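Feature request, filed as a ticket because there's no other form

It would be nice if the structure record came with a short human-readable summary line next to the tokens. Right now we just get the raw output. Example of a typical job, pasted below so the devs can see what we mean:
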Amino acid sequence: MVAEYRTRLLELLRQLAYERREVTLASGRRSHFYIDCKQAVLTAEGHFLVGTIINDLLTEIAPEVTAVGGLTMGADPLASATAALSFARGRPIHAFYVRKEPKGHGTEKWLEGDKTVVSGAQVVVLEDVVTTGASTLKAVERARLHGLDVRRVIALVDREEGGAEVVEAVVPMSALFRRRDFE
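Raw output as currently delivered:
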């Protein structure tokens, strides 16, 4: 069943998220293709597929994890889908979001979900697309500053531009799909 779900998720990503066009990425690099995973993941089917696949992967490679999250906005739907499906499966895994900048009012915090994802929690950082690894490492750093024990990173797509190796130097990383899956 998982293989079927992965195949279907890749179809959705190819159909709704992948574009061959010139773009400037968050890193400032130019690219001839763009992958906007949110376009696929924010569908009802995409949420179900991502939540199911990530939960299955967590059971296999990180069963100790109690929460998932990452840098807003790319990781938000991944974390929410994973949390919702985990509850339906009877093994709740909480979600957290890491802000790009601290909240500008009230608590001025970097991390949302901190009432349930507390210092010492074993977590996985999620990422939609890894290019240079800089955004992923920012999320890992912010989670660790909050006292979270980041066990690994799970990316939806590795663009295969060196980012995975940068992340791997700090924390183990798995990618559901790679650039070559889209060509």
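Something like this underneath would help us a lot:
Helices lie at 2-17, 38-41, 44-61, 76-88, 134-145, 163-168.
DSSP finds six helices and ten strands in the chain.
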